[in-house]
């Protein structure tokens, strides 16, 4: 290999590194300017998509909306390609949450060529605004978000069991209401009756289907009252898990003398009364 060709890969690596710092970093002035410009582009693109659904505005500025949509799509496509080029492991970024959102924020524009109205899905770009927490150094919000996600993940089994019970309940209620009220009162089938049970149990109450018989009204009252208690169950499950997730990094065993349980990991003695903690 010609010695004069050896510096080329290094120069290319330096070029990719500088681009990575600008695109993925926010500690430098260039990185902050890039992220802020990107956020404004996202906001403007979402505004265009939103205003495009207003018929009076769309009819007057229809060509401009199309130009703006494809201009934003082209910019985000170039940005996505640059991210793939400069990131150390492109496959990892492409499969990450933000990487998938970056990709999905581009696809609807191309789908609109085959499916009219698909460009409305471009509002998914709003999720990209999560980068504002990194830009503004709001790490506390990110940590709280991680606590919430951890709590939801930890309570998934309990929530699934709860939803299974609710689905069984609305199936039974729907079948009973179909039997009690019948098609003549709007409960034309069990699926329609299940729809009524879900709407009533969640205390939404659209009123498009209502029981008319005395027995149906009694059953509806029972379902309404039961709905308040059922809605509280998932809230309690997630609240408990949030409390547990918030206390991670603290010592779980309570002090045998004073009962204090908010000790840091590695603590040997209670910070309140000085008693030796059990198990350490």
> In one word, what is the shape?
flat
Radius of gyration: 28 Å
Q: Which runs of at least 5 residues are low in confidence (pLDDT < 50)?
A: 1-8
Got a strand count?
Answer: 2
Secondary-structure element order, N to C: HHHHHHHHHHHHEE
The number of helical elements comes to 12
- Mean pLDDT, to the nearest integer, reads 79
Taking the sheet with the most strands, its summary is: 2 strands, antiparallel
How would you classify the helix and strand content by structural class? mainly alpha
Portion in strands: under 5%
Helix share bin: 55-70%
| Strand line-up of the largest beta sheet | 1-2
Gap between N and C termini: 62 Å
Break the fold down into its secondary structure elements and pairings:
Layout: H1 7-24, H2 29-52, H3 55-60, H4 62-86, H5 90-95, H6 97-104, H7 107-111, H8 131-135, H9 139-154, H10 156-180, H11 190-201, H12 214-246, E1 250-251, E2 263-264
Antiparallel strand pairs: 1-2
Task: Output the keywords.
280 residues; mainly alpha; 12 helices
Account of the 3D structure:
There is one protein chain. 65% of the residues lie in helices and 1% in strands. The chain has helices at 7-24, 29-52, 55-60, 62-86, 90-95, 97-104, 107-111, 131-135, 139-154, 156-180, 190-201, 214-246, and strands at residues 250-251, 263-264. Strands 1-2 form a two-stranded antiparallel sheet. The longest helix has 33 residues, at 214-246.
């Amino acid at each position: 290999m010609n010695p004069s060709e050896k510096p080329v890969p290094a120069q290319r690596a330096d070029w990719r590194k500088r681009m990575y710092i600008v695109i993925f970093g926010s500690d430098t002035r260039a990185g902050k300017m890039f992220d802020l410009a990107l956020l404004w582009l996202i906001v403007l693109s979402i505004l265009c998509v939103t205003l495009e659904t207003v018929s009076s505005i769309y009819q007057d500025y229809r060509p401009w909306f199309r130009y703006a949509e494809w201009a934003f799509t082209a910019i985000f496509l170039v940005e996505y390609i640059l991210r793939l080029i400069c990131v150390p492991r492109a496959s990892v970024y492409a499969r990450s949450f933000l990487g998938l959102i970056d990709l999905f924020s581009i696809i609807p524009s191309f789908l609109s060529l085959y499916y009219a109205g698909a460009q409305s899905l471009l509002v998914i770009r709003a999720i990209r605004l999560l980068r504002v927490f990194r830009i503004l150094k709001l790490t506390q919000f990110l940590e709280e978000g991680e606590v919430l996600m951890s709590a939801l993940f930890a309570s998934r089994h309990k929530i699934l069991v709860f939803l299974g019970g609710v689905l069984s309940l609305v199936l039974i209620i729907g079948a009973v209401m179909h039997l009690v009220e019948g098609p003549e009162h709007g409960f034309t089938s069990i699926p329609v009756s299940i729809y009524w049970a879900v709407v009533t149990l969640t205390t939404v109450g659209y009123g498009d289907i209502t029981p008319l018989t005395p027995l149906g009204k009694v059953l509806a009252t029972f379902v309404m009252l039961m709905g308040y208690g059922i809605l509280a169950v998932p809230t309690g499950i997630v609240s408990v898990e949030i409390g547990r997730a918030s206390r991670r990094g603290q010592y779980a065993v309570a002090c045998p003398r004073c009962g204090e349980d908010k000790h840091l990991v590695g603590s040997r003695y209670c910070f309140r009364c000085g008693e030796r903690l059990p198990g350490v």
